[in-house]
Every structure is written in C-alpha cells, then in structure tokens.
Structure prediction request, 427 residues.
Amino acid sequence: MTYKKFVLKNGLKVVFTPLPNLESATITVWVKTGSRNEEVRINGISHFLEHMVFKGSKKRPSALEISKAVDAIGGEFNAATSKDWTNFYIKARVASLETAFDVLSDMVLNPLLRKEEIEREKGVIVEEIAMYEDTPMIKIGDVFEELMFAGSSLGRDVAGTADSVRRMAKSDFERYRELHYYPDNMLITVSGGVSEKEVRELVEKYFGELQSGPKKDKPAFNKFSARQVGPQIKLHSKKKEQAHLILGFLGHGRGYEGRFAEAILSAILGGGMSSRLFIEVRERRGLAYAVKTSIDRYIDTGYLATYAGVDPKKIEETITVMLDQHYGISNGQFPISKEELIKAKEYLKGHLALALEDTKEVNDFVGLNELFLGKVETPEEIFKKVDKVMIEDVVDAAKKLFRPERLNLAIIGPYKDADKFKKLIGK
Prediction:
C-alpha cells in the first residue's frame, strides 16, 4: 500500500491512499478531540455535535436535504465519536466524488446548530444513553473504563449523562467548535480509485478556506496518570439473565514499542475460535457463548482486556479460568509453542489485510496513525514487525502486563455484593 501526504496553506493535513482498481472512494474528516477533551459540565458535547452536523448546513438547511444529496449519488455517510477523536465520512462512486466533498465539507464546516434542533436532539441522545444502559454487552465497556480511568476524563462516558446533555446550549457548541475545529487539529483522509491531482484540487476547493481558530483558550491536554496499587473491581448491579464481564490489565499507549508483542499476546489469549480462552471458557467448559480479547489504546495509556457473557451462576469459575490463562503465560505454567506464535502472527496479518479491502477501513487505518503518531506505517512494514516478534518477547509483554496492580474487573449482573469477586481477584 502506498500513500501521499500533503498540507494545505492553512495547515490542514491530507493523507491520500490511491487504490486504482476501485470504482469508489471514501473521504473522511477527522477532528482530534473527543470526550476526554471536554469539561465535566458539557460531558458528551463531542458526540452531541456529531449528531448536529447531520441536522442542517449552510447549503442544505435540513437533515432531509443532506440525506437526499447523499442518496442521489448512491453514497453512504456516517460519523463516529470516541474519547480522543471524532470523524465524519462519505463513501461514493469516483464519478460523484466532488458532490461528496461538497456535502461533507458543508456539513462539518457550516452546521446551522439551530436552537430548536438542539432541543429536539437532546431527547434522542437521552434515549440513546438509556438504550446503552439496557444493552449490557455495550455498557460493560463503559463500566470497565470508568473503573480503570477513575478520576480522569478518560473515565467519562462518550455520550455524557442525561443531565449534561440537557444543560447544553447553542453557545456551548459554538465555543467547542472554536476550540477544536481548526486546521492544525484536523485531518482529511481520502482513499479509492481517484487520482492525486483530483484529490488535491477538491481538498483545496472545499477545505482551503478553513481558518485557524483561537487556540489560546484551549484547555491543556488531560494526561492520564495511573494511581492503581492493587486489583480493582466495579460491580454494576442489574437483574439480567446473563452476566457480562470484562477482565483487563492496564497497558500502554498508541506508540508503545512493544505493541506488536502485545497484539500477538492478545491473539493467543482470545483472538479467534482456536484461541486459548475460547477453547478453555467456551469449548471445554461451556461457560460462555462469547469470549474475546482485544487491545484498546489512547495516546498516553491503554489496556488488554477480555470480554465474556456468562451464566450468572458460573461467573466465578469463568473469572478463575481467565486469570489462570493470563498468569499462566507470564509465570511459565502454560508456555507458548512455536506453532501458536505462528498462528497468532498470521491471524493478525490476515485480519489487517482483509480490513484494508474497504476504503473506509483504509481511511481509519491511516487516519488514526497520522492523527496521533504523525506517521503512517504501511501494512507491509507492520507485517515485518509482527514477524520479528519472538516467543520471549510475548512472554516479556505478559510479565509486564499481567500483574495484580494492573488488574481490573468490571461486572454487570444480578449481584448485590462485590466482596466475593474482590477475594477472587485478590488471591
């Protein structure tokens, strides 16, 4: 995979990935801000603003007109908000690329933010928060991060709270946009069957007039500082037919040099239907239907964690098995074989290769790397680094991660007392 980087006169960075055999292209606008950059009073405003961008713009003053413009070219459009980034994209035929640029730039740069639309959307977002509360498979991730990042803005919910959403006013959105939506804090990624010349012309035409914002009042970056000294647990008591849990260990940030060894460790533990935890938890004991290990990273911290949905009566056994498998790698009880290492490497490389067959995924891949690390590693470069990882590197990663003072356990289920779980993870 090849890519080109260039910068507009106003400071806006652009990363273009040519995929000449495709008839489609995706344009993504990135903003380097999310819920961790918000004041407590307006927690959730990044996500709320993402909604408002679709409610009407200067050229297309209603949600219907925006959606009709995208439907008229057979396009696909959406947006997403995380704790440290927000993005907006349109995917369309190459022949309709200029229309996609026109619509997307107008939405992101010129949202109307009408007071009546803001008030109406408050109800939508409050119901969205309630929906997640009633969806434990999703909610458990929030509970886990509330525990792990307690006292930090990383521990707050991306959607905010019902109270914080209801108190937001138009002036809050305008100030937030001034603080974060300016060229040096944004990025454009384009991938697909389009030429570099056309991308340069369209980006300049539709984003070249974006002006730098007043950055002097921008809040300082809220860096996470770990204060954990022992195993931690958070119980979200809820009457459910199934218990949901995430067991994880505090890890490292996006640019961590040992991230490839950690990725292999994650794949060995719970990266597929032949992974250790899938076999031990589901196949051999029938404790869970879903069990999966993954890694999440921010610029300054991260974690390796495993999710499982289990019979409430079998949760203690599940936790015990999970801990045994984690600690068994670090203490040598369950050594990693050469075959297991090779399989994990190929699993990671294969999943990345498959993901990059989609232009939106290509934009996500290059966008996050450029936005936070200032560089893009090609898949080929990543494959080489994955291949260099040795068994001792993976074991060393396990020894650094799997320590009691890094252990966190979040549970949603029909339990009233967390003490039995505290004793279980404190052994």
